[in-house]
Amino acid sequence: MCGVVGISGTSSVNLRLYDALTMLQHRGQDAAGIVTESDGELHQCKGEGLARDVFRRSHMLRLTGNSGIGHVRYPTAGSSGPALAQPLYVNSPYGIFIAHNGNLTNAEKLRQQIFRQDLRHLNTDSDSEVLLNIFAHELQERGKLEPTCDDIFAAVSGVHRRCKGAYAVVGLLANYGLFAFRDRFGIRPLCYGKRETVAGTEYAVVSESVVLDNLGFELIRDLEPGEALFVDKSGVIHLHQCSDDSQLVPCIFEHVYFARPDSLIDDISVYKCRLRMGEKLAEKLIRLNPGFEIDVVIPIPDTSRVAAQSLAERLGVKLREGFMKNRYIGRTFIMPGQTERKKSVRQKLNAVKLEFAGKNVLLVDDSIVRGTTSEEIIQMARDAGAKKVFMASAAPGVRYPNVYGIDMPSADELIAHNRTDEEVGELIGADWLIYQDLQDLIASASEGNDLIQQFECSVFNGEYITGDVDKEYLSRIESLRNDAAKSNDNLPSESKKSQVIGIHNNRITEG
């Protein structure tokens, strides 16, 4: 999962791109990057780490121009390192930068096509570089010295014909304009807005609407699945449906975990969706255990707080903040090993003992992935004096890997895979475990937009919407994603040390 932003403005965009990346930081903490364009010259700064650690005053002064794109990276396909920080660049044709959120499921096949048919060279194992070169080749095939919006849209149509999987893309075409497009299922989110200034109209394309709110842009709408947007160098916006076979099937896990609650995604309020998730979970709890004895509901910070609030209200039980969070520790489910994840939980959370001592406690989390975090938190509750510890998950059991841009582990490392709810509850040490039903989760999201007929729910039901995910594919990603593989990939080396890489006036420099 990554965050992307693109702005076509009437004044300098560097600081606004930086602010946008800080607002999207929850979508990726591995790397950050910005590229701006000024009179055909491209200026870039990117590196490993949080946005606040990558960009310095000297870098911002170099990022001149009224249009640009930005990216925060959370690695899914490919390894990690400074060379994989985005945006990514290819010089032919015209000079193209893209920032990509998602994952291509046919990247290996495309790599062979790019080498044997398109006669292009790839420098990394990133699927984003594959997508960039596919787009570049399709655009070059138009054979124009000066591309038009029709050429951009034709190239995006070529991407849709060749690429499978999830992709929300923003990009810059040197000296010609800003473009963006979304895969034909709209799996990953992408919306755009505008802002009127004295000098003219500005446009922004972002992963989440909260960025538009904070930068003073009016949200227009989400890009449709398969749709492309192009803002030319005169500031005129063009929109076109580039897929003959599109259907909106957005990822429901955005509402469970990844998106900020103050965002709108496909006209659905993430905040209200999470409120409904809590209400429906409470109704299931009452149905299964009408004589429940719960003294206090405690959310596991931060994503579960909204669902826990509505759950507690529906049960008529008080809600308390029983865990204090250290906000300088990263998300635990992407940690490379079980030992590190357990250590991280204790560093990240501390129990308020007064809220646990002698009480029957219902802990609420947004989801349970490996179960490592849940097991450790339940033990922390017992150590703080809880009499009984119940666990509620606002999402169903995560039983299958995600292949569309969320780096969930191999199936064997998912605690709910091939296990009953009772078995999972026993493994994590809960006195009772209750999961959200999938139909209730879907209903919670659907209520916000009844035009959506289907959600991408593969992590819960194993049904992959793109139709190209088979056992062979899942076996391949399992070999890349299991803890052993990640431990080997994360061994320290001189080549992986954090650095900032810049392209200034089309010359590669390091700063």
Q: What would you note in describing this structure?
A:
The protein has 511 residues and is α+β, with helices and mostly antiparallel strands. The chain has two domains: 3-249 and 496-510, Glutamine Phosphoribosylpyrophosphate, subunit 1, domain 1 (4-Layer Sandwich), CATH 3.60.20.10; 273-326 and 336-441, Rossmann fold. It contains 17 helices and 23 strands. A hairpin with a 2-residue loop joins strand 2 (31-38) and strand 3. Helix 9 (270-288) packs across helix 10. The two termini are 27 Å apart. Residues 331-337 and 489-511 have low confidence and may be disordered.
Topology summary:
Elements: E1 3-8, H1 14-23, E2 31-38, E3 41-48, H2 51-54, H3 57-62, E4 67-73, E5 88-90, E6 96-104, H4 107-116, H5 127-140, H6 149-162, E7 165-173, E8 177-182, E9 191-197, E10 200-206, H7 209-215, E11 218-222, E12 227-232, E13 237-241, H8 253-258, E14 264-265, E15 268-269, H9 270-288, E16 296-299, H10 305-315, E17 323-325, H11 338-348, E18 349-351, E19 360-365, H12 372-383, E20 388-393, H13 421-428, E21 432-435, H14 438-446, H15 458-461, H16 471-481, H17 483-489, E22 500-504, E23 507-510
Helix pairs in contact: 1-7, 4-5, 5-6, 9-10, 9-14, 11-12
